[in-house]
Amino acid sequence: MPARPERALVALGLGSNHAPERHLLHALAALAHDFAPLRLAAPVVGPDTLHGGADYANWVCSFVTDWPEERLRSRLQALEQACHRQKGAAVTLDVDLLYFAGADGVRCHRQCLEPYWLAGLAQLLPEERPEPKGANFAERWRAMQALGKVDLRPWWAWACNGLSPLA
Asked: Which domain of life is it from (predicted)?
């Protein structure tokens, strides 16, 4: 009997500042096809803190998979390319592997503690820790809010347009 593949807990950050209602929903539909069921945090919108461009809509999702990390990364890159992402232009779709907890440990994206990702991680994975001895995502989110370092608002464009995130 073949060995059962290891399963990993995954959280992705999906961001867009160019037609996000189209690109984020396209990405979620594609991800749901490969990794259902997806868990979705409340989407948020906030300023482009890196380049000063248009505001970003950000959405965090999580799921469990038996895909190896490199296969997952390749799939995410293909998803970005399907949305015609180009360096130096408005971002149609950015998909970051925020959290990957597999048999060989936990790996986190360097930006997973930024407010636009941390808000969703605290909703979906409140007890998970980006560092073994550090605070969990929920504790980090509460601390960030207490310091007044949050410039986010709800993003409901998809709902206002009568769209379904998994249609």
From this structure: Bacteria
